[in-house]
Amino acid sequence: MALRHSVGVQRQYCGQLGKKANCQALVSLTLARGEVPIPVALRLFLPDSWVDDPVRRRTAGMPDDVSGRPKWQIALDEVDRLRDQGVRFGCVLGDAEYGKVAAFRHALDARGLCWALGLPPTQKVFAADVTTAMPAPTRAGAAIKARWSCEQAHQQLKEELGLDHFEARSWIGLHNHALLCQIAFAFLQSLRVGEKKVRVTGARPAASADAARGQAPCGRRAPRASHSVSALPPANPHPHAAMNMAE
Question: Which of 3, 37, 70, 72 could, after both became Cys, cross-link 32 (CB 3.0–4.6 A)?
Answer without folding.
Answer: 37
